[in-house]
Amino acid sequence: MLTPNINLESKTILVTGAAGFIGANLVTALLNTVKDIKLVGLDNINDYYDVSIKEYRLSEIRKLAAAKPDCTWTFIKGNLADKALIEKIFTESKPEMVVNLAAQAGVRYSITNPDVYVESNLVGFYNILEACRNHPVEHLVYASSSSVYGSNKKVPYSTDDKVDNPVSLYAATKKSNELLAHAYSKLYNIPSTGLRFFTVYGPAGRPDMAYFSFTNKLLKGETIQIFNFGNCKRDFTYVDDIVEGIKRVMERAPEKKNGDDGLPLPPYRIYNIGNSTPENLLDFVTVLQEELIRADVLPSDYDFESHKKLVPMQPGDVPVTYADTSALEQDTGFKPNTPLRTGLCKFAEWYKKFYNI
To answer: Where are the membrane-spanning stretches (predicted)?
Structure first.
């Protein structure tokens, strides 16, 4: 296991995408577990999905930060693609570490709205890299995605696999992030770590994700579509496991070393963060409906069969995601392991409370 070489206490950390699902949970965890931390959050709070959920996450952070007098929380509403704003944040806040989670998410949305992916995922990430080049940063941690594996036939997916055949623009932007980070690590000796997340879920998550959108539709009496005739498998990863993985990676920056030619070797790593237990979509839907009934979100006599429809695969989708997390476990001592039922139970309970059902 790698020995932590960064102490998060008393650090100033910039978290982009701080109103997002993973970002808000990371900020919450850091406030709860790290003393004297100074957190700067950036988010444009766009309307890709229900803004009230983003506002809810931020309100929970504000309440927590108010109860932590030794910690500092500053939120900035702004766009990652605004280079002048990013430079201003780095100049004034002087972050010692950056966790870049801001991105336009979603595979299918990238087919109909490509412009926003180029702006946020490419231009925005370039701005972060430029700021890290021009200001001293101990470690840049950034979100990649399991989507970079495309229709890779070999499973489980390993970070040693070749990932040169993305099947969506979203995946292409995430692979581009990894390439850009590698170039900047090599050229400017910036320690960077990319994290390939596998289907993250949990309370206050993204409404465009299957478990959330299925719940919304079932509650309205609408029919849910199960792609690839139910034969897809997903490595569902509970958000608390994702956050624990991020925290451990943050504390372990790649070391700066010189190669045999005397030039710096890129201080660069990539990890998968997934549950390593792919679930069949039909089994997943069964567990979801059981937990929605148990939480009284849906009645016990709900006719699920009449509200399910098996349909073909959608453009940009892949039949299976399956993470090999051996490198993460070996280097950080952590392996995501929250069972699907446990995570969906917590989601169902949150859903009932948030929507006052």
So the answer is: 12-31
